[in-house]
Each structure stands twice: as C-alpha cells, then as structure tokens.
C-alpha cells in the first residue's frame, strides 16, 4: 500500500504571519504556485491560496501591506503521512480540495496536490466519468459559439 509519504512534496514554500499579502503574491509568482502554508517554526497555523489573496485581500480593498492573518485560512484540513494514497484521494474528492498539507505532530512535513494523485486509478475513473458527463451535456445542449 502506497502512503502519502511516498508521493508528497517535501520542498514546500512557506510563509509566516510576519509576511504580508504582497509578499505572498510575489512568492506565488516566483515559484508558480497557488498555495502557501503559513507556519510558526515548523508548526502549521494556516494556508493562503491565490484565491484567498483575491477574494479576501484585494477584492476587499486591502493593500499589499495587509498582514497574512487577514486572508489566511486557519481551519485547515490536514492529513498524516501514514495515510494511504487512496484515502487521501477520497478526502480530496469528497471535500473538493486540490491540495492537502501533510502534518506530523502538528508540524508541516509536506503537501499533497491533486496532480500527485492524478495517476491513481480513483482519479482516472472520476476523470472519465466527469468527461463522459460533460460530453453528454454538450450533445444535449450544444453551445451556439465556441
């Protein structure tokens, strides 16, 4: 049985509460990512997504100097590295999340992204079903322009 530890990314780009939302946006651009765990030392205290920056930050007219704590999600779903890959896939699918921080004893040890699971059979089946549903919908309701 493959575990989350086998597939998780361990070279995570992180930030702290001392960072501001502009600095997070720069980090995301520099590393071509849309998700940054917020840590105190190694302890996970929250996450910020690119969507958080837009919806909770700039769309609320916060300046770039606004503290990370104003936009971060603190009630973060996490998983442990010993969890099976299939269980992680089920959690991601049922909660409709693309990334899960991997935590051991409260400390961030990695991140699992949906791309890490893409080759797993559960996602291949779900992707096939989704594509089938989309195709059926398009045949019933053809778009007027593409």
From TrEMBL:
Record keywords: CBS domain
The family database entries (InterPro entries) matched by this protein are listed as:
CBS_dom, CBS_dom_sf, Diverse_CBS-Domain
- What organism does the record attribute this protein to? Paenibacillus cisolokensis
Q: Which domain of life is it from?
A: Bacteria
The UniProt record lists the keyword Magnesium:
no
- Name this protein carries in UniProt: CBS domain-containing protein
Q: Which SMART domains match?
A: CBS
All copies of domain CBS, residue ranges: 8-64, 72-129
């Amino acid at each position: 049985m493959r575990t989350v530890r086998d597939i998780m990314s361990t070279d995570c780009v992180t930030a702290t509460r001392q960072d501001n939302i502009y600095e997070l946006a720069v980090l995301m651009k520099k590393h071509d990512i849309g998700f940054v765990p917020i840590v105190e030392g190694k302890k996970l205290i929250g996450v910020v997504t690119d969507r958080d920056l837009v919806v909770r930050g700039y769309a609320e007219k916060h300046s770039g100097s606004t503290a990370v704590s104003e936009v971060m999600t603190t009630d973060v779903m996490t998983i442990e590295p010993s969890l099976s890959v299939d269980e992680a896939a089920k959690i991601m699918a049922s909660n409709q999340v693309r990334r899960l921080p991997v935590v051991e004893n409260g400390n961030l040890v990695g991140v699992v992204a949906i791309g890490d699971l893409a080759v797993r059979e559960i996602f291949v089946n779900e992707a096939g079903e989704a594509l089938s549903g989309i195709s059926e919908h398009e045949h019933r309701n053809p778009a007027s322009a593409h």
